[in-house]
């Protein structure tokens, strides 16, 4: 049982490249980072576990809980390594998941690609049945329709089955009948039903989500069963909980039922990690910024909670562009991901403009300066040329960086075509990549009806600290936090997660003739369902919180905004109070209301039940270090757009009491924090590094 | 430092594109009409004081964008920039001054900074009803097609023009959606203005004139370079379309000379007496779009990228009609122009140009209720629905591409999306009974044409309804390229097989359904050169039959669906 009193906790994050394991016990934290073993992901986990247990000087039996997140489901979709999945849908609608919106992610490119559907046409079958939008039967489903499909489903080699019927969110009757039928006839199949997995209207998204669930289910289920067995064998007697994409925890059984909700659980851990920083430092508005080798992820955090969303796309095939991936409708921590990382390739486009990403040199061949055959300039090459990285001391000195190679490639590909100097070209590369990230952050905040400029930036991931001052300038941000253990942030974040489950239901009602009874009945049923999921994992005495949201819009609009409901049953004056809450929220987002021409309506409800988040372990900074004479290095200072002499300070030497003024470079094992001349840096008692702006002038640069 | 100045201009450029994208997202989030909020039938952009477009949102549809780009000069002709006041907002839906039919309304807002206009924000949205007969090709004069808003104030110094709104409210079928959309369009430009001012502050600029000139020049130069890389010459192409009663002949002569492209439509049919005519703005919009798809798809759209192409069409022809000719369903002809232009460019750049596709979207405009249907059906029908008007946006297949199959059921050249069926059925009494690929409709080719789709529409309880048909390529198929076969022609019929007209309003009687079978794209390259494995896959997915595999592709499949290699070789030799 997951119990608040547990003391020794382990977080395991399987990423595409690394598997991170973190153990916390008695206010101490031990970490390990090993290469992911793709063929058998549990192998790396066991190695990592062994390492942290050893470091802590304990035995497997002493571990009280393991919290696990994995990109297994995401990778299965991206690499198309999921189960042989068949789909059953309403007659006449065989191609919904392939036709999608009929749109294109980009207007002018005639050679765009659309994502291949997870279930190919040959395994999409139809049955005669039909409901209308109110859930009434227009055409009754006969069992003979289902019976007739068995031979074809067998021939297809079906391992998993997605049942996706029109308007099932309004009435799951036909879907349930189909599920019961096939569960009896073919108990070995994994069956996913759209009214369970994603009970909301818009058939393309619902069907697509359901197919994704079916597609990853056999694989996820097998992996989790095996991993649990392996833990037992090695002496781990404790419960394992799974991290979900919305930042909540759930039981292994629920994860096996709804594996699509595991997608993006790793990045969700990163966001929780950032939330934890805001909690312990009392930051009410933040923007987390996680930049690695290939992509950057940005998340808004208000009052220690990450922004959540219900729309998400996985496996985008066209430049990370919206509408070029497979839509998934699940509760997710809302993050923008763009193709901007250390490995992003810079080039001069046909307009003579400097462009960076989304194409990445990856880890192979990697940036030119890795000397592994990479020939095109990357963001890392630019940072090296700007003096921001120490060529002799990169990645624990495993790799010697070749600065000459970086200079050559930047000169050939950027400086010469633009007819500018080498340094300017390198600076330009970093400016453009920061600009791309700032633009993504800005569009994202606008879409959310929020601002960037009053936020604290929380930076982690290998490439983030190199650019963070530049990015802060573009977003008019004055305060930056670089947390401790940023390299294994997601796994640390897992340990902060509450047990939580969200239930979503389309429930369409106008406010002017509002059926209070029906709404209350739906909300109660949703809460019961969410509670039962949470209680599977929470200790009996755990305090549960319920959070209820109504998604509302003006009647006639197509996009909803979230309105928080209280936990009281809806009363007789609910229409009036909902209208008021909606108007307020609408004005916050769009600046004005239009209640004079249209009435508000409810489209859906979401109910989340959650335990309290788990309190942080505070790692404290080591005591005041004696004054040390620091080395210096010439590097480019973005604040004055000139080269300056930077003080080089190892992170452990940074002092709590005495801030160090930029320009400075704080070195760490895996990265460096570049402090421009208008920021100063200090260590907080919590062990985090804080950068504060000392000069506002830079916010208006001269042209 | 001078080096940084170039970089800074490029940064501002990227910032402006981001700002207009934010502008577009705002209108999508706040609009009422399904065409804008679900389908993206809109455009948004920022202009300099001289009315030249500097940046345009990625979200949007080409007919709007490029037409909007050239219409702003009409606004500033009538209301000079130096006489605009803070809080002023202007609008029009005049087809000849803006985007080609009454449904597309353009709203322009001057952005003020330090007491003067620093730029103009514009957006165009498709409003579902603007009065008159409603969207459809049946009118004989533009006056029947709805209400004309001349270029005028939508707001004066912050106060909405209530006289205009009242006239509009009393002339349209759905006043709430119309008015809500106007507010969404106002909010859209407001967002753009806010973004622009913060950009000016951050970069300490007074205006965007210099940066704008840089953007326009760079774009124009880069398209110009791309044009210079094509061989000089005169390239001609013809296309015949169904038309209303008589076939319509479109003729294009594309001249490449240095860095200039001239497209001349001399020889094109005269204007139709029904509402499928194209105004010059719309003709330019889709012509430029077609050219840019092939030679400059990486260049962001702005005045510079549009300037490179000069478009000429004889006054009074169907591509350059005069008042008071009707224009409501102009997309049926206008959206064919990219394919027409592709046919010219395929001679200059043979390995870059796809085959023809379905082209114009198949957008059935439905109407229900007593006033929607013919008198005899009304007299005999046991059920009648409440009044409703709704349009859905649908499409056939695109042409096979050099190295890639065409895209099945994907809009091109239009940039709009289709609304979810579950959303349509929640909002209107329509029932969609079928929406899936039309098997066998993609033209055979080394790279197969994309498949069209079949859609089947009925009404709740079998009630009768009417549809304004504005569909083409039901007689003349999309052509294949370089030896590829033609795509399938479209079919408009009822579910009991009665063929309907491809143009004009028709009643679908009680208990009958409307069936639209949309054209498939043409194939690219000789079908006998298609990888036999891909042919086999197409058979397994029932996109083509095994008979078609044999007859069109020369691929022989065994009983258990394996490729019979030797028989295939014989068949293909």
- CATH class category label of the domain at 82-218 in chain A: Alpha Beta
| Main sheet overview of chain A | 9 strands, mixed
End-to-end separation of chain B in angstroms reads 67 Å
Say what oligomer this is: heterodimer
Number of helices of chain A: 16
Q: Compute the number of structural domains of chain B.
A: 3
Give the terminus-to-terminus CA distance of chain A.
61 Å
Weakly predicted, low-confidence segments of chain B: none
Strand content of chain B: 15-25%
What's the helical proportion of residues of chain B?
A: 25-40%
Shape of chain B: globular
Total helical elements of chain B: 15
Can you give me a brief rundown of this structure?
Chain A is of the alpha+beta class and 703 residues long. In chain A, the strands form nine sheets. In chain A, strands 13, 14, 15, 20, 23, 24, 31, 34 and 35 form a nine-stranded mixed sheet that branches. Chain A has a six-stranded mixed sheet with strand order 3-2-1-4-11-12, with helices on both faces. In chain A, strands 6-5-9-10 form a four-stranded parallel sheet, sandwiched between helices. In chain A, β7 and β8 (137-139) form a beta hairpin.
Structure commentary:
By secondary structure, chain A is of the alpha+beta class. Among the domains of chain A are: 9-77 and 221-265, Nucleotidyltransferase, domain 5; 82-218, 3-Layer(aba) Sandwich (Rossmann fold), CATH 3.40.50; 500-610, Dna Ligase, domain 1 (2-Layer Sandwich). Chain A is 30% helix and 26% strand. Chain A is built from 16 helices and 35 strands. In chain A, strands 13, 14, 15, 20, 23, 24, 31, 34 and 35 form a nine-stranded mixed beta sheet that branches. In chain A, strands 3-2-1-4-11-12 form a six-stranded mixed beta sheet, with helices on both faces. In chain A, a hairpin with a 5-residue loop joins β7 and β8 (137-139). The longest helix of chain A is centred in the N-terminal third of the chain and has 31 residues, at 203-233. Chain B has three domains: 2-220, no CATH class; 354-530, no CATH class; 532-572, no CATH class. In chain B, 31% of the residues lie in helices and 20% in strands. Chain B contains 15 helices and 19 strands. Chain B has helices at 2-30, 34-37, 62-78, 162-169, 175-202, 209-228, 280-295, 303-307, 331-334, 337-348, 375-380, 421-427, 532-540, 546-551, 565-572; strands at 42-47, 53-56, 89-92, 104-113, 116-126, 152-156, 159-160, 233-241, 248-257, 260-264, 309-312, 365-368, 388-391, 430-437, 453-459, 465-470, 491-494, 503-508, 514-517. Chain B has a seven-stranded antiparallel beta sheet with strand order 2-1-5-4-3-6-7, sandwiched between helices. A four-stranded mixed beta sheet of chain B has the order 8-9-10-11. The N and C termini of chain B lie far apart (67 Å). The model of chain B has no long low-confidence stretch (mean pLDDT 94). Chains A and B meet through α3 and α12 of A and α1, α5, α6, α7 and α12 of B.
């Amino acid at each position: 049982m997951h119990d608040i009193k547990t003391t020794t906790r382990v977080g395991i994050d399987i990423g595409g490249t690394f598997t991170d394991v973190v153990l916390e016990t008695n206010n101490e934290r031990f970490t390990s980072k090993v290469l992911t073993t793709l063929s058998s992901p549990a192998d790396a986990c066991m190695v990592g576990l062994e390492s942290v247990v050893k470091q802590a000087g304990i035995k497997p039996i002493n571990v009280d809980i393991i919290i696990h997140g994995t990109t297994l489901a995401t990778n299965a979709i991206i690499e198309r390594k999921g189960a042989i999945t068949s789909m059953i849908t309403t007659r006449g609608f065989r191609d919904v998941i392939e036709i999608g919106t009929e749109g294109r992610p980009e207007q002018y490119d005639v050679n765009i690609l659309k994502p291949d559907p997870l279930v190919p046409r040959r395994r999409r079958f139809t049955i005669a049945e039909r409901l209308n939008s109110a859930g009434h039967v227009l055409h009754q489903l006969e069992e003979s329709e289902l019976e007739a499909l068995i031979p074809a489903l067998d021939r297809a080699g079906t391992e998993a089955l997605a049942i996706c019927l029109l308007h099932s969110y309004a009435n799951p009757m036909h879907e349930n009948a189909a599920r019961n039928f096939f569960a009896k006839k073919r108990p070995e199949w994994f069956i996913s039903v759209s009214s369970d997995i994603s009970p909301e209207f818009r058939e393309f998204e619902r069907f697509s989500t359901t197919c994704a669930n079916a597609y990853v289910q056999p694989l996820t289920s097998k992996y989790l069963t095996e991993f649990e067995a392996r833990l037992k064998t090695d002496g781990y007697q404790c419960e394992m909980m799974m991290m979900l994409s919305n930042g909540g925890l759930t039981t292994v059984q629920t994860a096996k039922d709804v594996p699509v909700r595991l997608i993006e659980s790793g990045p969700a851990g990163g966001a929780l990690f950032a939330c934890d920083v805001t909690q312990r430092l009392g930051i009410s508005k933040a923007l987390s910024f996680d930049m690695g080798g290939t992509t950057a992820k940005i998340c808004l955090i208000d009052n220690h909670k990450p922004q959540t969303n219900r729309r998400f796309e996985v496996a985008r095939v066209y430049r990370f562009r919206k509408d070029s991936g497979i839509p998934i409708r699940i509760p997710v921590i809302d993050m923008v991901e763009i193709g901007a990382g250390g490995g992003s390739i810079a080039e001069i486009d046909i307009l003579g403009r400097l462009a960076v990403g989304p194409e990445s040199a990856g880890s192979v061949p990697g940036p030119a300066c890795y000397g592994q055959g990479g020939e095109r300039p990357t963001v890392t090459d630019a940072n090296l040329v700007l003096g921001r990285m120490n060529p002799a001391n990169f990645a624990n000195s495993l790799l010697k960086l070749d600065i000459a190679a970086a200079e050559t490639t930047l000169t050939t590909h950027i400086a010469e075509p633009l007819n500018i100097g080498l340094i300017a070209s390198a600076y330009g590369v970093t400016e453009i990549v920061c600009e791309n990230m700032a633009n993504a952050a800005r569009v994202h905040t606008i879409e959310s009806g929020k601002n960037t400029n009053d936020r604290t930036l929380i930076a982690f991931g290998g490439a983030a600290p190199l650019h963070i001052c530049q990015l802060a300038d573009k977003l008019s941000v004055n305060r930056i936090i670089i947390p401790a253990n940023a390299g294994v942030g997601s796994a640390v974040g897992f340990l902060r997660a509450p047990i939580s489950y969200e239930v979503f239901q389309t429930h369409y009602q106008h406010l002017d003739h509002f059926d209070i009874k029906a709404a209350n009945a739906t909300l109660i049923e949703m809460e019961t369902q969410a509670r039962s999921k949470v209680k599977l994992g929470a200790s009996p005495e755990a305090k549960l919180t319920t959070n209820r949201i109504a998604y509302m819009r003006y009647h006639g609009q197509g996009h909803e905004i979230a309105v928080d409901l209280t936990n009281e049953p809806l009363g007789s004056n609910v229409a009036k109070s909902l209208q008021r809450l909606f108007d307020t929220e609408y004005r916050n987002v769009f600046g004005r209301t239009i209640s004079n021409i249209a009435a508000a309506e409810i489209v859906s409800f979401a109910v989340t039940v959650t335990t309290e988040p788990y309190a942080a372990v505070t790692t404290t900074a080591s005591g005041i270090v004696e004054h040390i004479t620091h080395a210096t290095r010439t590097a480019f200072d973005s604040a004055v757009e000139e080269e300056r002499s930077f003080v080089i300070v190892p992170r452990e030497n940074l002092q709590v009491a005495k801030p160090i003024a930029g320009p400075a470079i704080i070195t760490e094992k895996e990265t460096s924090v570049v402090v421009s001349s208008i920021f100063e840096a200090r260590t907080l008692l919590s062990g985090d590094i804080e950068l504060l702006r000392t000069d506002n002038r830079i916010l208006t640069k001269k042209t | 430092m001078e080096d940084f100045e170039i970089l800074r201009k490029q940064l501002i450029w990227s910032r402006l594109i981001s700002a207009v994208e934010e502008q577009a997202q705002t209108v999508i989030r706040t609009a009422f009409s399904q065409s804008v909020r679900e389908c993206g039938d809109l455009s948004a952009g920022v202009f300099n004081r001289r009315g030249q477009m500097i940046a345009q949102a990625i979200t949007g549809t080409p007919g709007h964008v490029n037409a909007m780009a050239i219409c702003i000069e009409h606004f500033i002709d009538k209301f000079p920039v130096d006489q605009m006041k803070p809080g002023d907002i202007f609008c029009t839906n005049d087809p000849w001054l803006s985007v080609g039919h009454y449904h597309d309304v353009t709203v322009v807002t001057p952005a003020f900074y330090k007491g003067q206009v620093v730029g103009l924000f514009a957006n165009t949205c498709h409003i579902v009803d603007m009065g008159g007969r409603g969207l459809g090709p049946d009118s004989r004069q533009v006056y029947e097609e709805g209400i004309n808003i001349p270029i005028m104030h939508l707001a004066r110094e912050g106060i909405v023009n209530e006289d205009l709104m009242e006239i509009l409210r009393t002339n349209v079928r759905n006043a709430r959606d119309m008015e809500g959309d106007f507010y969404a369009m106002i909010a859209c430009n407001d967002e753009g203005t806010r973004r622009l001012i913060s950009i000016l502050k951050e970069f300490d600029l007074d205006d965007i004139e210099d940066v704008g000139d840089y953007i326009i020049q760079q774009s124009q130069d880069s398209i110009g370079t791309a044009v210079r890389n094509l061989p000089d010459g005169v390239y001609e192409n013809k296309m015949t379309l169904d038309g209303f009663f008589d076939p319509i002949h479109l003729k294009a002569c594309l001249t490449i000379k240095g860095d200039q492209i001239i497209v001349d439509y001399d020889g094109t049919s005269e204007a139709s007496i029904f509402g499928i005519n194209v105004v010059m703005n719309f003709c330019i919009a889709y012509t430029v779009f077609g050219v840019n798809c092939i030679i400059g798809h990486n260049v962001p759209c702005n005045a510079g990228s549009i300037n490179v192409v000069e478009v000429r069409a004889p006054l009074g022809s169907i591509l350059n009609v005069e008042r008071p000719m009707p224009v409501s369903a102009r997309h049926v002809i206008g959206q064919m122009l990219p394919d027409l232009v592709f046919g010219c460019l395929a001679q200059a750049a043979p390995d870059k140009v796809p085959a023809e596709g379905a082209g114009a979207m198949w957008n059935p405009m439905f109407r229900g209720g007593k006033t929607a249907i013919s008198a005899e059906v009304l007299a005999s029908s046991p059920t009648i629905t409440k009044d409703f008007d709704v349009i859905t946006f649908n499409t056939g297949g695109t042409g096979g591409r050099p190295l890639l199959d065409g895209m099945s059921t994907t809009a091109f050249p239009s940039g709009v999306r289709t609304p979810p069926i579950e959303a349509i059925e929640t909002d209107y009494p329509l029932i969609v009974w079928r929406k899936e690929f039309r098997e066998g409709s993609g033209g055979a080719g080394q790279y197969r044409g994309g498949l069209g789709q079949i859609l089947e529409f009925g009404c709740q309880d079998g009630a009768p309804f009417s549809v304004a048909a504005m569909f083409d390529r039901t007689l003349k198929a999309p052509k294949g390229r370089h030896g590829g076969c033609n795509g399938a022609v479209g079919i408009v019929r009822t579910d009991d097989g009665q063929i309907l007209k491809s143009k004009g309003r028709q009643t679908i009687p009680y208990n009958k359904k409307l069936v639209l079978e949309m054209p498939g794209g043409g194939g690219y390259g000789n079908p006998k050169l298609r990888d036999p494995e891909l042919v086999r896959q197409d058979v397994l997915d029932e996109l083509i039959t095994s008979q078609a595999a044999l007859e069109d592709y020369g691929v022989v499949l065994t009983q258990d669906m394996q490729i019979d290699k030797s028989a295939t070789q014989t068949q293909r030799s």
